[in-house]
Amino acid sequence: MAHYELYGDDGSTDREKCPRCGDVFLADHGDRQHCGKCGYTEWE
């Protein structure tokens, strides 16, 4: 998915941002969400 497809018409997104970096979206890998910048991971 390209970054420009993340935002709806109103500028909203359904993706979470990294709590450490703040400006990076977490990648959804099914069983976890991961930040590619700092390595933060949330397991589901």
Describe this structure in words.
Its cofactor is Zn(2+). One of its GO terms (cellular component) is ribosome. It comes from Natronoglomus mannanivorans. Part of the 30S ribosomal subunit. This protein is an all-beta fold and 44 residues long. The protein contains no helices and three strands. Strand 1 and strand 2 (32-34) form a beta hairpin. The protein is globular and about 30 Å long.
The total strand number stands at 3
Counting DSSP H or I runs of 4 or more residues, the number of helices is 0
Shape call: globular
Uncertain spans: none
Strand content: 15-25%
Order of strands side by side in the largest beta sheet? 1-2-3
Q: What summary fits the major beta sheet? A: 3 strands, antiparallel
Radius of gyration: 11 Å
Q: How far is the N terminus from the C terminus?
A: 21 Å
Helix percentage range: under 10%
The helix-and-strand class reads: mainly beta
